[in-house]
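Anyone able to model this chain together with INI?
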Amino acid sequence: MNQRKLQSLKVGIICSRFNEFVVNALLDGARRNLAKHGVKEKNIEVFWVPGAYEIPVMARLMAVSQKYDALVALGAVIRGETAHFDYVAGPCADGIMQVQLETLVPIGFGVLTVENVEQAAERSRADDTNKGYEAADVAIEMVSTMRRWR
Ligand code: INI
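re: yes, here you go
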C-alpha cells in the first residue's frame, strides 16, 4: 500500500482492561507499528472493554459501523489467575474470527493466551516481538491483501 493510502487508513483498537498493565504494553506496541507505517494518530481510535470476553461484541459493533479499514484486538488472558481461562480465551478467539468472517473487516489478533505473568511480559516487551506490534502489522497487511483481491 502506498504512503498516501496508509496515512488515510482508519484503524480501531479494542483493548480489554483485565491485566491492564500487559494490555497497555500491547497498545504501545500496536501504536508503534501503526506510526511506523505512517497511519495518522487522528485516524486511530481506541475503545476499552472490561475483559477479553467482551472484545468480540465491541469488535462487531465497530466492524459493522464501516468506520474502520481494520481493527486490532488486544487483551491478556492468563491461565494462572483463573479457573475459567478456557471459557474466556476460546470464545474470545472464536468470536473475533466470527466477526472477521461475517464483516470482512480484518482484525489483528493481539490477545495473549498464556500460562503466567512471565509469559505475558515476554510477549509484551517494548520491541518488535510485542504481540500488539505484530497484530497491527498483520491488520495492515490484510487490508492491503484484501484490497488487491478486490
Ligand atoms: N478477562 C481477561 O481479559 N483476562 C483474564 O485473564 C481473565 N480472567 O482471569 O478471568 C478475564 N476474565 C474476565 C472476562 O473477560 C469477563 O470480563 C468477565 O467474565 C465478565 O463477562
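The CA atoms of residues 53 and 91 lie 7 Å apart.
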